[in-house]
Amino acid sequence: MTLNKYVADVWEPVRSAQPGTWQREQWWWVERILPALGAVTLCELNAQKWSAFLDTLHVAGRSKALAQTAYRMALRHACDVLGWIEGPHPFAPIRGATLRTLAEAEPLTLEEVTVFLDAVHLPVPRALFAVQIGQGLRPAEATAVRWEDVDFNRSTIFVRGEKNALARATVPLTPFSKAELLAWWEQRGRPKTGVCFEKQGGGPFPAYPRQAFRTAATNSGLNAGRERGLFPYVCRHTFATIAAVSGIDRAFTKRMMRHSQKSTVLDEAYNRVSVRDTANAFAGFVAVKRG
């Protein structure tokens, strides 16, 4: 299958199902990537062809990084979800790129989760962020949660994911997110239907409340000077890393995060153990007493 056909038949429908995501990358596909590489089959795409394409772009490194992110995600889907290719080919670093990538994210520790949530002064975003952290949800998945998706008796939640074939699934509620969601449910008067996290004045959020997240990150002191670069997706990173630090088997974490078993994204992008957690893990590594 050529890249042209793959993008038209598979990748565009997957991405366009997520509001705002396809619009942000469509220009790169239509105007740049496909005219240059669209006739190449997925199996024939390689690092040399991609590097040669990037060399034709007379744009800043940041813009090249945007194109590479869109392209790499499409190849990852073809590998992890469809199994059509063995994996994305290698990518060389892009000089001048200033974009933060998933691999550079610094997740919150368990202690920092409490500090962060305590800095959220409005009940709606607090409940939203807490459930997102507690379940490892993507931002768009968190805002899409409805009360009819939650079963407190069975401790499950149906996630309305659209990113891949496994994203839409019923998964267990963790004790953390269940406690936060129950408190919010009681506060809302125990509704049976409707969106869980309503914008002010009612109705679903038109988009993820990024400003509320940034404000909480700043007010908590966790993003002083914007050094941490905390952003909404760090909630998903936090879930994966806390699971790893807690010794939870990766197979269970992949199931909760709705990754395929052969996906390497969990290891390559999400598990970013902090210095503090690393130190705690080796706290028992003590020297033998001498003499």
Task: Please describe what this structure looks like.
With 291 residues, this protein is mainly alpha-helical. The chain has two domains: 3-99; 104-279, Intergrase catalytic core (hpI Integrase, Chain A), CATH 1.10.443. It contains 13 helices and three strands; from the N terminus they run αααααααβββαααααα. It has a three-stranded antiparallel beta sheet with strand order 1-2-3, with no helix packed on it. The protein is globular.
Describe the protein's topology.
Blueprint lengths: L2 H14 L4 H17 L9 H10 L4 H20 L29 H9 L4 H13 L3 H5 L6 E2 L4 E5 L7 E5 L2 H13 L22 H10 L14 H12 L4 H8 L7 H6 L4 H7 L10
Antiparallel strand pairs: 1-2, 2-3
What are the key terms here?
mainly alpha, hpI Integrase, Chain A
Mean pLDDT: 84
Low-confidence stretches: 99-103
Q: Give the total of beta strands.
A: 3
Q: Domains counted in the coordinates: how many?
A: 2
Number of helices: 13
CATH architecture of the largest domain: Orthogonal Bundle
Terminal CA distance: 70 Å
CATH class of the largest domain: Mainly Alpha
Could you describe the largest sheet, including whether it forms a barrel? 3 strands, antiparallel
Our Rg estimate from Cα atoms comes to 21 Å
- Order of SSEs, N→C? HHHHHHHEEEHHHHHH
Shape: globular
Please name the fourth-level CATH homologous superfamily of the largest domain.
Intergrase catalytic core
Overall SS class: mainly alpha
In helices, the fraction of residues equals 40-55%
Side-by-side strand order of the widest sheet = 1-2-3
CATH topology of the largest domain: hpI Integrase, Chain A
Strand content: under 5%
